[in-house]
Amino acid sequence: MRTQVAIIGAGPSGLLLGQLLHLQGIDNVILEARSGDYVLSRIRAGVLEQGMMDLLRKAGAGARMDREGHLHEGISLSFSGRRERIDLKQLTGGKTVMVYGQTEVTHDLMDARQAAGAQTIYEAQDVAVHDFYTDHPRVTFVKDGQLVELHCDYIAGCDGFHGVTRQSVPADAIRTFERVYPFGWLGVLSHTPPVSDELIYANHERGFALCSMRTPTLSRYYVQCSLEDKVGEWSDQRFWDELKRRLPADVADTLVTGPSIEKSIAPLRSFVAEPMKYGRLFLVGDAAHIVPPTGAKGLNLAASDVSTLYDVLRMAYQEGRTDLLDKYSEVCLRRIWKAERFSWWMTSALHRFSDDPFAQRIQEAELDYFTGSVAGRTTIAENYVGLPYEVVG
Known about the structure:
Layout (H helix, E strand, L loop, with lengths): L4 E4 L3 H12 L4 E5 L3 H6 L5 E2 L1 H9 L4 H6 L1 E3 L1 E6 L2 E6 H4 L5 E3 L2 H15 L2 E4 L2 E6 L7 E6 L2 E6 L2 E4 L6 H4 L7 E16 L9 E3 L6 E7 L2 E8 L10 H10 L3 H4 L7 E15 L2 E2 L2 E3 L5 E2 L7 H22 L8 H23 L6 H15 L2 H12 L8
Parallel strand pairs: 1-2, 1-12, 2-8, 5-14, 12-19
Antiparallel strand pairs: 3-7, 4-7, 5-6, 9-10, 10-11, 13-16, 13-17, 14-15, 15-16, 17-20, 18-19
Helix pairs in contact: 1-6, 1-10, 10-11
């Protein structure tokens, strides 16, 4: 087989990159180890930055998002028994975020790719990348018991944190940075109306809480928990009682509870791999970086990587600007580290790290300081809606 760009992974980043390249006449093949149904079964959060919304529209996959997604013009930070609203739209010159599930984004991109007639190979086993430090990289995989060799110009590793692409990089060529947080998030999905029209992030002496939503009738709630906790130890009643304790009284009083339809515990970590380019292999999204979910940056950082890689590949093919390919890692990492910083700040300011009452008061003072001035609220708003994509060229 022969293609121009081999994309490993059919999650949102791989599908988005493939669709954007296809629309520019750049041939690409996506390889995915799992089935399409399995990919769609992954339940993830879905707060989309302004830049990702615009990118989905550019890819011709934003129509359903615009019809069914929910634009949010603000968020609230709860601490010291009160709630402070951050007016995202006013503070950023009109930018907003969209609540639209990652599963729906994936579905829309799959549909767009199928309609375009572009090739995605699901259940591709034993995927391996070869010769990416040469001018003739290739990917091998097994499909229906047959070994297949895919020759290409470039390889995009969109296969996640545990994927094969980053693991294929020589150990002496890569540097990683990591912080593992000493707690997790217990998340509950329920067929109940959201307690608020906008997200509420809560700092409480008992721990962090988040009130989110998927639709006007489907809510997503989280509480900070121990990494040693088991889902089975948390009955629905225990969860709702704990959530109410961590919210301001006026919010807790209006919370509608009900049976959970999904419940899970997720650990939190920060991770960055540098660089993100190895010869003709490019790491994209979770293959190169992870953020704690507090700042809603994971999916959005993947989208900004895609935007940068799409730009440099397009200019390499259409304008002969192969020199710009070497800027991919540098450009991406500037934005990634700023997003890592914001996610770290949100996590540090909102979660309980110890029983130290001094630390709790410092967190409350930090939140009071940032929400107490236009400059502080603007800093939060600008980061939350997403920093601008850097123009390459």
